[in-house]
Automatic annotation (TrEMBL):
This is Bifunctional glycosyltransferase transpeptidase penicillin-binding protein 1B. Pfam families: Transgly (PF00912). InterPro entries: Beta-lactam/transpept-like, Glyco_trans_51, Glycosyltr_51/Transpeptidase, Lysozyme-like_dom_sf, PBP_transglycosylase. One of its GO terms (cellular component) is outer membrane-bounded periplasmic space. PANTHER family: BINDING PROTEIN TRANSPEPTIDASE, PUTATIVE-RELATED, PENICILLIN-BINDING PROTEIN 2A.
């Protein structure tokens, strides 16, 4: 007859397992074949691919391993491992019942979730099937899987799998070690079948805390203090003696054995070479982010919670890195190898034309004066407007000289390249302007902020929006942004387009209209944002990793396009139509003469930040967007800038890049695809000098009929009014008074008051801020 305690124990065990089973009833529990493959899977570096399954290479890994059969492992090791890690390994069925009770109690009370005491079988499940994070649901899965493993496989098979999978610290090359064979070779220079009792006990003690007990540093040098590992070895020996696996005489002899003489001296660790360094780093970085997200989401956590806890975030980073480095994933990207290579050839051959290289001195981290080289840099990104797939990029002039990815990892002032995104498109969307609406370009003072046009000039006239964008006049853009922000922040537009680096301070300052920002934007984000305007006003998130499969080809991640409506199709069309004027006859008019393809459907915008610190051109066909930036890093305390001709140089470089892409694959550029005018676009024949319809009005008590030369203006679903006295955006009462005086006298058919002029220094000194106290990043741009 069973004792009452045994009955209660059996009942409790049954209830506990039932509770765990209910927790994971919807999980996909692997079958025998899958389990066998997974518990015996070897550590294998992940593989990286360009688009179209073109292999790039393997990920670097600092973990070495090799599998051996149980017959190639000394009984000293199997005895040591089972005694220290799982005393009842040969008696239990995969779990120790008391562990189930502890886990159940933890779930019900919320006390002591990390119960410890996992069996070898449970540890194998965690290493090879799950991962090491200890949430309760995963603990429940671990326990049920351990029971299944024990049912499917013999103790010998389980032990062999464990001894080949467990990690054992570092070897004498500083490499991380998995499996007892690598441990024996990397610590003592012998095979796993040859280790003596003391060596076996030392190896068996490592899995509990490999980083603490390992005798080697990450450089392969012996630690100054290896006592922790030696003390742990003695604990293992005692447990072997306790379990009658060694005699007392053997126990004492092994304790006295001088293990330090067996440790191998430091050896060189040949570094793995990296091909396509910028692509390699980008793919590994983004793949880690994807796997990390999957890990914490599987634990029921959000990005906000993980990012708030630095230690937790680092833990998931490490888990993701370990999985990617050792589990044989296949990471497929969108980077088109021929296109990428073509872009690299351009920067290699023509990068030196972008700006001068400077040689200087700087103080290093040790306080020493060292010689440094300040080279002009470039970052460029090519992506598909409809899918968001990044097809190619330039990370920098040379990966060997600078590993900083200037396409994805550096934020720079966008200069005037931000005008279509933050000013003109929102103004069109909010029905503030049409393409020919007049914008004021006169002296203006916004509480001490006094913008000027490029080169400290001013037009002194009302300019239509198309011309203001075409020639990148600053004052009209600031006047228009002031009107736009009075109707609400443009933040929703920019964030929907993927630009999330701007601050609250940026949005409230008028200098944003010219690219004045606290931090700036990346080239990748700029390209992605611009793609919106060539995709009917819909933004599709950019991406570089298409899918990730495990070592057996099972898809563990597949990119899913995320699209967001930002502007109406009409707004996107009108803004693009205006940007075509930039290319055909504006600040980028040199491009049509330098490209090998038809630019009829090309639109774009230049951008130059204050003092020529940054130079941009972002160009789009209906199919792709190509953004390029040029400037100096100035990380050594220097302040080198580009020349006054930087805009022309950048335009030339963009043309060469686009030509290289076109020559590599003409279909990618999509130059023959046209932009169809949406039904939401309305037009009106407006008076050229006022940007509004002809009509009668009274000015200063005098009746005036506004008429004259007409021009066609485009609108996002609305029509303009008849000409009013104050017909434009911005401008003072005096500006309008002078305009109408000249108009009535027949002196001003085009709306000019008088010729443009250079603003004296006493006026422009207010330009040291971009409005409301913000340090300038782009006050005079083109």
């Amino acid at each position: 007859m069973l004792s009452f305690g045994l009955v209660v124990g059996a009942l409790g065990l049954g209830l506990g397992l039932g509770y765990f089973a209910a927790l994971i009833s919807h999980d996909n529990i692997p079958n025998y074949t899958t389990m066998k493959r997974e518990i015996n899977s070897n550590y294998e570096a992940s593989n990286l691919y360009f688009a179209n399954d073109v292999r790039l290479g393997s990920m670097r890994t600092n973990l070495v391993s090799q599998s051996v059969s149980i017959n190639q492992i000394s009984p000293n090791l199997t005895k040591a491992i089972t005694s220290t890690e799982d005393q009842y390994f040969y008696q239990h069925k995969g779990i120790v019942p008391k562990s189930v009770f502890r886990a159940l109690l933890s779930s019900l009370t919320g006390i002591g979730v990390q119960t410890g005491g996992s069996t070898l079988t449970q540890q194998l499940v965690k290493m090879q099937i799950l991962n090491s994070e200890t949430t309760f649901k995963r603990k429940a899965t671990e326990i049920l899987l351990a029971l299944r493993v024990d049912k499917y496989f013999s103790k010998t098979e389980i032990l062999q799998a464990y001894l080949n999978a467990a990690t054992f610290g570092r070897n004498n090359k500083g490499q991380n070690v998995a499996g007892v064979e690598e441990a024996a070779e990397g610590l003592f220079g012998v095979h796993a079948s040859q280790v003596n009792v003391a060596q076996a006990a030392f190896i068996a003690g490592l899995p509990q805390s490999p980083s603490v007990y390992t005798p080697y540093t990450n450089t392969g040098k012996l630690k100054k203090n290896i006592e922790y590992g030696l003390e742990r070895k003695d604990v293992v020996l005692f447990r072997m003696y306790r379990d009658n696996k060694i005699s007392y005489k053997t126990y004492q002899a092994a304790k006295k054995y001088d293990l330090t003489k067996d440790f191998l001296p430091k050896a060189n660790n040949p570094q793995q070479s990296v091909k396509y360094g910028y692509v390699y780093n980008l793919l590994t970085q983004q793949a880690k982010g994807i796997i990390k997200k999957q890990l914490y989401q599987a634990d029921g956590l959000t990005a906000a919670k993980v990012n708030k806890d630095g230690a937790l975030s680092e833990q998931y980073d490490e888990q993701a890195e370990q999985l990617l480095a050792n589990r044989g994933y296949h990471i497929y990207s969108t980077i088109n190898k021929p296109i990428y290579n073509a872009m690299q050839q351009v920067v290699k051959q023509q990068g030196s034309t972008l700006g001068q290289t400077y040689y200087d001195t700087a103080t290093d981290a040790s306080g020493n004066i060292v010689k440094v080289k300040e080279q002009v840099q470039n970052g460029s990104v090519l992506l598909n407007n409809q899918t968001g797939a990044i097809l190619g990029f330039i990370g920098g002039r040379s990966y060997s000289s600078s590993q900083l990815n200037h396409a994805f990892d550096t934020m720079r002032s966008p200069g005037s390249s931000i005008k279509p995104l933050a000013v003109y498109a929102p103004a069109i969307e909010r029905k503030i302007i049409g393409s020919e609406t007049k914008l004021a370009d006169f002296k203006v003072n916004f509480n001490g902020y006094k913008p000027t046009d490029y080169g400290s000039t001013i037009q002194n006239r009302f300019i239509n929006a198309r011309e203001a964008l075409k020639y990148s006049y600053n004052i009209p853009a600031v006047n228009l942004y002031n009107e736009v922000r009075n109707q609400g922040s443009v933040k929703p537009y920019l964030e929907k387009m993927g630009i999330t680096s701007l601050t609250a301070n940026d949005y409230k300052n008028l200098g944003l209209a010219l690219g004045g920002t606290d931090y700036g934007v990346t080239v990748a984000d700029a390209a992605s944002a611009y793609s919106t305007l060539s995709n009917g006003g819909t933004h599709t998130d950019s991406y570089v990793i298409d899918k990730i499969t495990d070592a057996n080809g099972k898809v563990v991640y597949q990119h899913k396009a995320k699209s967001t409506k930002v502007f109406s199709a009409a707004t996107a069309y009108i803004t693009s139509n205006m940007m075509h004027s930039v290319v055909s006859s504006g600040t980028a008019s040199q491009i049509p003469g330098e490209t090998v393809f038809d630019t009829t459907n090309l639109v774009g915008k230049t951008g130059t930040s204050n003092d020529n610190r940054d130079s941009w051109f972002v160009g789009s066909t209906p199919t792709v967007t190509l953004a390029t930036w040029t400037g100096y890093d100035n990380y050594n305390g220097s302040s080198y800038n580009l020349t006054d001709s930087s805009s022309e140089i950048t335009n030339q470089f963009w043309s060469n890049l686009a030509n290289a892409v076109y020559n590599a694959d003409s279909s990618v550029m999509g130059t023959t695809k046209t932009r169809k005018r949406p039904s939401g676009v309305t037009t009106a024949s407006v008076v050229k000098s006022t940007g509004q319809l002809p009509g009668q009005l009274t000015v200063a008590g005098q009746s005036v009929f506004a008429s004259g030369t007409k021009t066609t203006s485009y609108y996002a679903g609305w029509s303009p009014s008849k000409t009013k006295e104050k017909f434009g955006i911005g401008g003072s009462t005096s500006n309008y008074s002078t305009f109408w005086k000249n108009y009535i006298n027949g002196n001003n058919a085009d709306g000019a008051l008088y010729g443009g002029e250079v603003i004296p220094d006493e006026y422009t000194e207010g330009n040291t801020t971009t409005g409301i106290g913000q340090s300038t990043a782009a006050t005079t741009t083109n």
